[in-house]
Amino acid sequence: MTNTPEPAGITSLAPHECWQLLRTVSVGRLAVWVVDHPDIFPINFTVDHGTLVFRTGKGTKLTAALAGNPVAVEADGVDPATGIAWSVVIKGEASAIVAIADVLDSAGLPLFPWQEGRKDHFLRITPTSVTGRRFKVTEPKTWWDPMAAAPRTAPE
Amino acid sequence: MTLEEPAGVEHLTKAQCWELLKGQVIGRLGVIYAGHPEIFPLNYAVHNGSVVFRTASGTKLAAAMPHAEVVFEVDGYDPHAEQAWSVILRGSAQEIDAPAEPGSLHLQPWQAGTKNHFVRINALHLSGRRFQVTEPDIWTTPLSDPRRASFE
Questions:
Q1: Is the CB of residue B127 less than 8 Å from the CB of residue B17?
Q2: Interface of A with B in 4-33 (CB under 8 A)
Q3: Domains of chain B: which residue ranges?
Q4: pLDDT tens, residue by residue, A128-144
Q5: Where are the beta strands (DSSP E) in chain B?
Q6: Which residues of A touch B30 (CB under 8 A)?
Q7: Which residue among A2, A17, B85, B94 is buried most deeply as judged by most CB within 10 Å?
Q8: Predicted TM-score (pTM) of this structure
């Protein structure tokens, strides 16, 4: 094993793989721009025809998501059997679902809000980019070895 | 910040937030890069009252430097109490010299590679909340304590 600066074992995922993985989880994190700083909110989302849909009440999240700035959603997971982790990021713009038929459709989606309270707003994120990667979660000791900047044996 | 706060939401004290932060190893960093929010999971440690993480040269570091406004979010779920929590830390990211004893930080990366840059988030705002989840099933995802699952 050589001391290569490029991390080995990282695989970029094709869009269809990203969507497939997104369908396996329902919790993600929404990154938005709030006035003068980035902010992150955990959300419960579902995949709907190549878009992400989530519910929210009034508040910072709604205001920021609809402010016209781009948003990003990240979801990740680990296969406990293999230690292979994945992370998918959707970037795009959020829009409120206003058409009645759309809201009824979305209400039929398996969406559970993260916490109780009125969450009457349905938001849809239409992606402009879908990226994902898969990588092996490293053993703790491999983290520190590169600091020694010395040749080392492979941890495997 | 929120206009209407639903019932059952417990706001956490700063001490509680730090306790929760110390108990986790993976969080999500949000930065604005080229006018677009970026978000990625990373491994962190709490050191001298701030969040420290390691990174390689590249998007993460470039996006967060120098002294960029960042947000860092960590959340978790207690299956016994069926309570979820989320802690948000906002501040500026700053590259620091490697600590004298970096091993004491117990920083473990999520993926392999040379990550020789230490970054500290100087916390300006820290807030957290805890609440009963409405649908416990949604938490039984592969996210549920991946570290333990993969290391033991």
A1: yes
A2: 5-10, 24-27, 29, 31-33
A3: 9-151
A4: 999 999 988 765 433 33
A5: 9-11, 26-33, 36-47, 50-55, 69-78, 83-96, 117-132
A6: 29, 31, 38-40, 72
A7: B85
A8: 0.74
Question: Rounded to an integer, what distance in angstroms lies between the CA atom of residue A149 and that of residue A146?
Answer: 5
Give contacts of B39 with chain A, Cβ < 8 Å.
Answer: 29, 31, 40, 72-74, 89
**Alpha helical stretches, state H, A32-147:** 60-65, 100-107, 140-144
pLDDT in tens, A89-104: 999 999 888 766 566 6
Homologous superfamily assigned to B9-151: Electron Transport, Fmn-binding Protein; Chain A (2.30.110.10)
Return the half-sphere exposure (C-beta side, CA atoms, 13 A cut-off) of residue B44: 27
Kindly give the residue spans of alpha helices, DSSP state H, lying in A108-153: 140-144
Distance from the Cα of B4 to chain A's closest Cα (Å) equals 7
Task: Give all domains of chain A, ordered by start, each with its CATH number.
Answer: 10-140 (2.30.110.10)
Interface pTM, i.e. ipTM: 0.71
A82-85 contact pairs (CB < 8 A, 24+): A82/A136, A83/A136, A83/A137, A83/B150, A84/A134, A84/A135, A84/A136, A84/A137, A85/A134, A85/A135, A85/A136, A85/A137, A85/B110, A85/B111, A85/B146
Output the CA torsion A56→A58→A64→A70 (10° steps).
30
